[in-house]
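Working notes for the structural subgroup meeting. M.R. asked for a predicted model of this chain before we commit to crystallization trials. I am recording the input and output together here so anyone reviewing the notebook later can reproduce the run.

Input as submitted:
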Amino acid sequence: MALTNALRARSVTTSKPWRFANTVSTYQLKRTYFSIHHPDPPPFAKTQDRILSAAIERVPEHGFTQRAMTLGAKDAGYLDVTVQLFPRRVFDLINYHLVTQRLLLKETVQFPEGGRLGMGGKVRTLAMARLRANADIIQHWKGALGHMSLLENIPASMKELNALSDEIWYLAGDTAVDSSWYTKRASLAAVYASSEMFMTTDTSSDFVATEEFLDRRLKDAQILGGMAGGFSQYIGFWTGNSVNLARSWGIRV
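Returned structure, recorded in token form:
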């Protein structure tokens, strides 16, 4: 019962950044060796960051396209040919969205010290906050998922999904370094990935259906339990659903 209540704890959202009511401070936990996806240096060079951050502003209108990248380069004060700095082209823009939104989680979701929200509730809140960060570009996200599932992009896509799962567990306060470390992260990655795909078809108000879907998946995966089969579930998502999604968009895989 306690686990079910924790997983069903609803996030409290306000204007950005999202915070819990009566928040008094952010969890400050010293990272240990198990948080390996968070280097201190900026993830993008200055020129790349300027172009991609400008290009992201064009995505709601133009999608994750070469057109958005070219316009972003112009908006940032660079020539069209500057987009050649991005050998992976559109995927570099998609990856920029993934990385920057993951790094923003620690600022957009905060928990009060001594709060009553359990680990499951925190994981759920962080996962939903990250999903909501796709709201402004959700009409283009199915196409982005198709690009992510291309053979040459799968390793980087999986790496970033791993990083997101690790970030969520870290921000939720998980410090366990036992045998459950890998299965927890693999299971959460699978839950998040399936929820993200579901969200691309969600027409409910304020993505209520996605929120309910996430709750069901978290409960099914038993995030705070042993999570047997988490790894196979994770791999199954990428080898099945994402490939089918790419094909549905006419992308060769």
